[in-house]
Amino acid sequence: MRVTRSVIPNLFTLANLFCGFAAIVAAVEHRPLDAALFILGSGVFDMLDGIVARITHSTSEFGVELDSLCDAVSFGVAPGMLLYVEFFSAWHQWGLLLASLPALAGVLRLARFNVQLTSMEDKLYFRGMPIPAGAFTIVSYIVFWYLPLERGLAPMGLHLPATIVPWLTTAVTVLTAGAMVSTIKYDNLPRPSMRSIRQRPVVFLVFLGGIAASAITAGTAVFPFMMLYMIGGAIRHAVLAFSAARADADDTLEEPDADPFEL
Known about the structure:
Elements: H1 7-28, H2 32-55, H3 61-86, H4 92-116, E1 125-127, H5 131-150, H6 164-181, E2 185-187, H7 194-199, H8 201-216, H9 222-252
Antiparallel strand pairs: 1-2
Helix pairs in contact: 1-2, 1-3, 2-3, 2-5, 3-4, 3-5, 4-6, 5-6, 5-9
């Protein structure tokens, strides 16, 4: 076996997979907080493997495929298992189907990304919400909203009736899965560099504000921020699509006949 420098980022990718596996085990053992921490660890290693690959100039198609396989477990299967154990298991077959949606949508999202990949460079936008963002949406909802609501607490001072919790959980699951398989353009995570800040200053400030709010609220603001990311991307996509449709309609209008009396 020939050892190359690509081994280094691949080790970070495999650490991502290990954390995903550990998250599944923790979910099955009814340890949701531990499962959430392991999924967060997967996110850290998922970010580091790309950074290390660029630093060592060892990006490759093999690394992309390995990354996708590991992401499918860590950000697809693990959050789905957490959903099933904590809530959907009581719904039997329907619960099994609904809990599997993040994994099914995430795998489809990754396959589409790999097929459409044309460059190893960082993209400013993704087609469909990235699977790590989908995982963080679901995990942040379960840990900071669903579990406190089940205990009668009020996240961020919002007192929600118990009857709305099943509907809210189902809506979060379905919307997250739908966002991943959609063609909506979502911003990539901005890099902490001057070039990235100059390219997209507003996006950088929004992400920075989200991180600050999450830290101040001890994580409770993560879920609202992820929903803002999801819904904001959809609204922007709709506005741009409407503007493009109007521009196309204006282009197809017939030009008025020239005035024969005008020189």
